[in-house]
């Protein structure tokens, strides 16, 4: 599967480029022509950007390949149950904080241990210290749009549109790298690493957002999903796989999804020097940044907690002190307490899900410290012979209590007090009971 890929999307990309040619200047960031019809713009950023989704939608009736792709993404498979998809969307927000933590530190950062995939990522330049944080937010926007409402994941919704944009973006990256490799074979080793963004890579990506979260990230934070939630959440990502052109068979059942996850972990995770560079660039890009203002050692502790020390060492991550391990433990206690408490009360569960839908989107997409506006997943990080992601510099940061770390410390203190009182009353009660038994005897 390293040499099979979404050929339909590539043919469609070629046709869309003929209909509305992309600009040739201003690399690596596209600056599109203001008179193009199929563009998007906002009040904050009036310069429009070419929107491949709109191009596809409006030209699907004029070309056989475009019509085939449009029909494919708008033909809902028989296995889709919209009630189940809606429940799967709710799962993400029911465990929202733990989900975002798992996706960031295990799905993305831990995923840098996949030695083949990082060769593609490094050639885009999208994981340098200056842009890695924005790249993470763009990926999160896609997830948030796919889970915002049932209408958003159905045909014509924002989640479906974003998935199609991502599909065409992957085709653009793949085409660009293959073109450069054909002209200079030493640029990218196709035989060794496979076609960029191939079917196996796509399965791994969908699995990262679903299976890895369910069976690794959540349990390592003290959270276990109910069986129905597991089925619903895998079904959601199977539908997203259908939209983005990834094979859907590996996600037919939770059991198959777990088997594929375990197989890929064994066969694909083998960090290289490139893996170290990208993993540490992610840490550097998140250090001290809003909304969490997390220190570097706290980020290291999160990554090691979720990925284990063996992978952490192979990725070249720093070894934080026990203080930061304790803060991560406090974070897990915080997530467990709130997730299980709200889950147990349906009314509160619904209110929490509705609130987090708004808060996550506002903070990550709309706020000035997030993306600032919705991305249309345009081709911003364009591979060139000169584009190679290098390791960013980092300054030593000591112990501090700021942002999310203060909250985790408070959770740890409260949990310690509760545990201490429980033990104290337990011991006292046991002593009183023993004295009563002795006196009764």
Structure write-up:
The chain is mainly α. The chain contains 20 helices and two strands. Helix 1 packs across helix 3, helix 4 (82-94) packs across helix 13 and helix 5 (96-109) packs across helix 16. It is globular and about 90 Å long. Residues 25-36, 395-401 and 421-425 have low confidence and may be disordered.
The span between the termini is: 75 Å
Secondary-structure element series: HEEHHHHHHHHHHHHHHHHHHH
Computed over alpha carbons, the radius of gyration is 24 Å
Shape: globular
Largest sheet: 2 strands, antiparallel
Structural class category: mainly alpha
Enumerate the spans where pLDDT stays under 50 for 5 or more consecutive residues: 25-36, 395-401, 421-425
Q: What oligomerization state is this entry in?
A: single chain
**Helix content estimate:** 55-70%
Spatial sequence of strands, sheet with the most strands: 1-2
What is the count of helical runs? 20
Round the mean pLDDT to the nearest integer and report it. Answer: 85
Beta content: under 5%
Number of strands: 2
């Amino acid at each position: 599967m390293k040499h099979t890929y979404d050929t339909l999307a590539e043919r469609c990309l070629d046709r869309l480029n003929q209909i509305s040619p992309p600009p040739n200047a201003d690399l690596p960031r596209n600056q599109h022509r203001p008179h193009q019809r199929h563009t998007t713009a906002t009040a904050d950023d009036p310069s429009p950007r070419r929107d491949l989704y709109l191009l596809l939608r409006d030209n699907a009736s004029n070309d056989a390949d475009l019509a085939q792709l449009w029909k494919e993404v708008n033909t809902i498979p028989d296995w889709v149950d919209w009630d189940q998809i809606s429940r799967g969307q709710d799962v993400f927000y029911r465990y929202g904080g733990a989900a975002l933590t798992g996706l960031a530190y295990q799905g993305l950062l831990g995923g840098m241990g996949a030695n083949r995939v990082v060769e593609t990522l490094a050639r885009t330049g999208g994981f340098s210290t200056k842009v890695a944080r924005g790249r993470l937010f763009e990926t999160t926007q896609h997830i948030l749009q796919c889970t915002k409402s049932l209408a958003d994941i159905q045909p014509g919704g924002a989640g479906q549109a974003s998935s199609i944009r991502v599909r065409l973006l992957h085709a653009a990256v793949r085409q660009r790298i293959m073109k450069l490799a054909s002209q200079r074979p030493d640029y990218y080793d196709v035989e060794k690493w496979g076609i960029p963004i191939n079917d196996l890579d796509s399965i791994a990506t969908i699995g990262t957002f679903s299976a890895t979260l369910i069976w690794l990230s959540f349990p390592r934070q003290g959270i276990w999903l109910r069986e129905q939630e597991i089925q619903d959440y895998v079904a959601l990502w199977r539908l997203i796989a259908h939209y983005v052109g990834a094979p859907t068979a590996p996600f037919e059942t939770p059991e198959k999804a777990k088997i594929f996850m375990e197989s890929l972990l064994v066969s694909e995770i083998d960090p290289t020097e490139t893996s170290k560079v990208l993993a540490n660039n992610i840490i550097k890009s998140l250090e001290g940044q809003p909304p969490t203002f997390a220190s570097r050692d706290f980020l290291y502790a999160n990554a090691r907690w979720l990925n284990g020390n063996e992978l952490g060492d192979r990725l070249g991550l720093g070894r934080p002190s026990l203080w930061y391990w304790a803060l991560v433990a406090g974070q897990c206690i915080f997530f467990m307490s709130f997730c299980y408490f709200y889950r147990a009360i349906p009314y509160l569960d619904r209110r929490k899900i509705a609130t987090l839908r708004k808060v996550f989107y506002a903070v990550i997409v709309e706020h000035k410290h997030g993306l600032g506006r919705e991305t249309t997943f345009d081709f911003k990080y364009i591979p060139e012979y000169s584009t190679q992601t290098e390791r960013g510099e980092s300054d030593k940061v000591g112990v501090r209590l700021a942002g999310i770390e203060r909250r985790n410390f408070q959770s740890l203190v409260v949990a310690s007090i509760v545990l201490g009182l429980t033990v104290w009353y337990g011991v006292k009660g046991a002593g009183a009971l023993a004295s009563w038994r002795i006196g009764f005897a």
